[in-house]
User: Fold this.
Amino acid sequence: MLGVYVHWPYCARICPYCDFNVYKTRAVDEEAWANALLRDLGYWAARTPNRRLDSLYFGGGTPSLAPVRLVERVIDACARLWGFDRNPEITIEANPTDAERARFADLAAAGVNRLSLGVQSLRDEALAFLGRNHAADGARRAIATAGTVFERTTFDLIYARPDQSLDDWRAELGEALALGVSHLSLYQLTIEPGTAFDAQVAAGRWTPADDALCADAFDLSQEMTAAAGLPAYEISNHAAPGAQSRHNRLYWTYQDYIGVGPGAHGRVSSGGARLATQTPRRPQDYLAADWTPTQTPLSEDDQTVERFSFGLRLHEGMPLDEKDPFFSRNGARERLDRLIADGLLSWDGRRLAATTRGRRLLNAVLCELL
Ligand SMILES: C[S@@+](CC[C@H](N)C(=O)[O-])C[C@H]1O[C@@H](n2cnc3c(N)ncnc32)[C@H](O)[C@@H]1O
Ligand code: SF4
Assistant:
């Protein structure tokens, strides 16, 4: 299995909670970007011969604001360099503004078959608080249009916002589920270091939701999405049968993916090693084209830590048998047995999974286990 992630670093404006590698949009030189991205793709295609792509994902940033022609050139280059597997998943992230909605048909014509919309909230006050440049109405229009244009649509919501009660979230999530998409990503608002929200909270301007409310809102999300036929399949992701994100599953099942675009990470098996790769973060450095991606071979132990950290996010868990390198770690067996006895993990000798309670405490479980 092989996927390609393409990072587009520009946004119309920068949201106060976001710590991704993003920059306010400037005039974009399509030719310069095409040269840099195609060079980056070509470099990796030469190192991953005889493999086909299961998935291509344009993330960001706001890749729906990139020139559509550039998106098309990247899709065409992937087809030429690797070739796509039967029925590939080709996703693009978009913000639900009317300007972007007008580009959906062109993006679909270019080959995109899955849209991921950053709706964030269906409440105008919350959208203003989150610094978004769309309103709830526009988000509903974008979801409706996407449903007629793309094979699959998903959208993101951010919950556990300050002043949001459990009843508020119940009502908002109920409306979201009624919009009829087959996939939803539900994220708790996280205060990331160095963001505008971090500074506001440090200055005492507002207080994040408390842990008890976060836990209740998480549990409510599990119940409501399951009842609506979109059960959680990962900590923050919910899907109808057959509608899980194939691209994100590549990450969680620890398959290979190539990361191109500024600051993109990859995990690539090449020449007998598994490499952690990264490109230059700043767009101007990326465009300069006088670099090769950093490539750090991962030790078996690094890989074990990553494999567990991703794999236990999935409800189905991950393969684990007695011969797994995990068991050569100091005290591994005792720690595993303790977490099983505490009802946080379950293991049948072949697969390891977090229990419902374990998923709620996943970070602590991973710390203890690894
Ligand atoms: C990198 S954004 C890209 C999507 C698109 N640019 C947008 O904003 O709509 C991916 C998603 O991560 C989530 N996200 C980013 N920062 C977050 C934070 N601090 N807390 C919770 N969710 C966050 C948002 O739901 C966002 O849609
Ligand atoms: S949340 Fe999306 S639109 Fe906002 S800054 Fe981050 S990537 Fe850009």
